[in-house]
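Shape matters. As here.
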Amino acid sequence: MTQGFVMETRNLTKRYGALEAVHELNLSVPGQQITGFLGRNGAGKSTTIKMLLGVVHPTAGTGSVLGKRIDNPKESLEMRQHIAYVGEDKQTYAYLTVKEMIRFMRSFYSDWRPDVEKRLIKEYELPLERKVKALSKGMRTKLALLLALARRPALLILDEPSEGLDPVSIEALLQALAGASADGTTVFFSSHQIAEVERIADRVCIIDRGSVVMEVSLDQIRQDYRRITLGFSVYPSEADFRLEGIEHVRIDGRQITLLTRRNSDAVVERAHNLGAVSVDVVPTSLREIFLATVKGEE
């Protein structure tokens, strides 16, 4: 594992018959940060996470988590002792009560924090005597989060953690993840909710059709990315704006919109030289970058 990264993959691939769920995925996740794993439904996020956890075996490629190889059963088992995971389905032992489930899980971990357990039971308003199978989807999510956050893991992995939560609970979740990161835990969470990722992530990894299409820090987005809208009296040509740093081009009549990464001054200069009648340069958002990246010219 490269120094500073808690998770890395190299050409990680998973096929199910003719379906290639993950294609030669290369991922690098730095430690002690919050990384949002962003993609549309079906992009390959859950399959990637399951391979990282050793639950699903790769068809090809390799990877490491906390310095342990994911394709080595012994190392994968050692790695999972230091990870807390909240899965997409949030399924637990349905026949236990909430209280029994918490007591059962607490017995496995020396890093369990009773004070956090007590606080989250109250905060999430968990019904301790109710059986897990009788909980709503939102309550099952809250229970799964408690079981993860009451520990002090080196790495916290969550797959669509806000699914089934109301807006108030989502806010509490985001604050909890930010708090876990502040305590030194690396947080890696998948989502297709761009606003949630933008709220708390330090870094984002965008996956589309099973491959990583962008890895970027939120600071870099704020500092370097711009949306430039140009108006012309004649119809512009995309070929005139094949410059370094341009990520996406959209032409609508006499207007051309560019998504740039650095080099915005050179783009503006080119526009003036080509007789642009209007030039508008504004910071862009993660949402704009995501849509341009995964949808191309759509």
About this structure: The mean pLDDT is 90. The chain has ten helices and 14 strands.
